[in-house]
Amino acid sequence: MIANRTDVTEMILAAKVSKGLTWSSVADAVGQSKEWTTAACLGQMALSKQQSQTVGELFGLSDEAVAWLQIVPHKAGDSDTQHKDPLIYRLYEVVHVYGGAIKELIHEEFGDGIMSAIDFDLDIQRQPDPKGDRVKVLMTGKFLPYKQY
């Protein structure tokens, strides 16, 4: 019996290693971006029935695990653990250092509102550089103005 969505994530990660799968190949099979598919497999998105069946076949999951993939998850996972991961910590560092500037520039350009993390796109690419390859992270989210009432 599977106790929670985290159990399914652990099954997926173990199968990914044992089967030698890449997130890009899983995304191709699912028919979504590698960024969204990876987040879904890590427990941050609910998959459709067809998508969850595809993931189940790729990773050799039980019917019960496939059903768990279709349940809307609690977003953000175990943040205490995530904060300790050096890469995730650096992303928080970017927000801590540049968050105020990003906020000011968005408000100056768009007005009082936020960038949606629901109507959102993420693209991660390798950018070759003679001094050492760079990570390029492009985030786009719909602007949502605060309403007055």
Entry summary:
The chain has seven helices and two strands. The chain has helices at 5-19, 23-30, 34-41, 49-59, 63-68, 79-84, 86-110; strands at 113-127, 134-145. 14% of the residues are buried.
Features:
149 residues, two-stranded antiparallel sheet, 2 domains, single chain, globular, 53% helix, 434 Repressor (Amino-terminal Domain), Cyanate Lyase, Chain: A, domain 2, alpha+beta, 7 helices
Corresponding CATH architecture of the largest domain = 2-Layer Sandwich
SS-based class: alpha+beta
The Rg value, from CA coordinates, equals: 18 Å
Strand order of the largest sheet: 1-2
Q: Tell me, what's the shape?
A: globular
Given as residue ranges, the uncertain stretches (5+ residues, pLDDT < 50) are none
Helicity range of the residues?
A: 40-55%
CATH topology of the largest domain: Cyanate Lyase, Chain: A, domain 2
Largest sheet: 2 strands, antiparallel
**What is the CATH homologous superfamily assignment of the largest domain?**
Cyanate lyase, C-terminal domain
Q: What is the overall number of helices?
A: 7
DSSP strand content:
15-25%
User: N- to C-terminal separation?
Assistant: 48 Å
Notes on the protein architecture:
With 149 residues, the chain is α+β, with helices and mostly antiparallel strands. It folds into two domains: 5-68, 434 Repressor (Amino-terminal Domain), CATH 1.10.260.40; 79-145, Cyanate Lyase, Chain: A, domain 2, CATH 3.30.1160.10. The chain has helices at 5-19, 23-30, 34-41, 49-59, 63-68, 79-84, 86-110, and strands at 113-127, 134-145. A two-stranded antiparallel sheet has the order 1-2. A hairpin with a 6-residue loop joins strand 1 and strand 2. Helix 2 (23-30) crosses helix 3 (34-41). The termini are far apart. The mean pLDDT is 93.
